[in-house]
């Protein structure tokens, strides 16, 4: 069995504050810079992910996260994910797949992509994001679906200052994700194999 190449790092929030004074002795703090709101997830591509536990419908954002969104699309278009598994389930955290065969052999991927976590889309329940190693720009094919709000994985709160890039969301079938979330596991590997049968493109529903 190959050692899993991907680790999701639980990140906390570090805050620092400081004061100072100008030459006149004033203690008035500097103005707070305006906060740029995170963009709303676009629905550029939609897919039906057929799994051995049921269907999950995904909307993928290639507008705000073009590198990540197009990377996922390329893997889908070549049938890369067909027959792979959800190999990592951490209850009330994430379900992760897209890298291993049912016998836990890691599939060869294309080159890693640039991390787009800086876009600012939050790791909220039902969003899909890229899994990676501790290296910021190491994501390839593996993805995870957040089963709860995991804002500690956002760049704003991540201990490594980088975070994990959200590039889409579940728009139907979140109950299937919840079923995967509660399966029995051994060292976070589901005891029962959960297969991604196929991922096929569909027309995005009207918003």
Can you tell me about this structure?
10% of the residues lie in helices and 24% in strands. With 207 residues, the protein is mainly beta. An 8-stranded antiparallel beta sheet has the order 3-4-6-5-7-2-1-10. Strands 8-9 form a two-stranded antiparallel ribbon. The longest helix is centred in the middle third of the chain and has 12 residues, at 66-77.
SSE inventory with pairings:
Elements: E1 45-51, E2 54-60, H1 66-77, E3 86-90, E4 94-97, E5 127-130, E6 143-146, E7 166-172, H2 174-181, E8 185-186, E9 189-190, E10 196-202
Antiparallel strand pairs: 1-2, 1-10, 2-7, 3-4, 4-6, 5-6, 5-7, 8-9
Give the C-alpha Rg. Answer: 19 Å
How many strand elements? 10
Percent strand? 15-25%
Rounded mean pLDDT score:
88
Main sheet strand line-up: 3-4-6-5-7-2-1-10
Question: Main beta sheet: strand number and arrangement?
Answer: 8 strands, antiparallel
Quaternary organisation? single chain
Alpha plus pi helix count: 2
Low-confidence runs:
1-7, 9-26
List keywords for this structure.
2 helices; 207 residues; single chain; mainly beta; two-stranded antiparallel ribbon
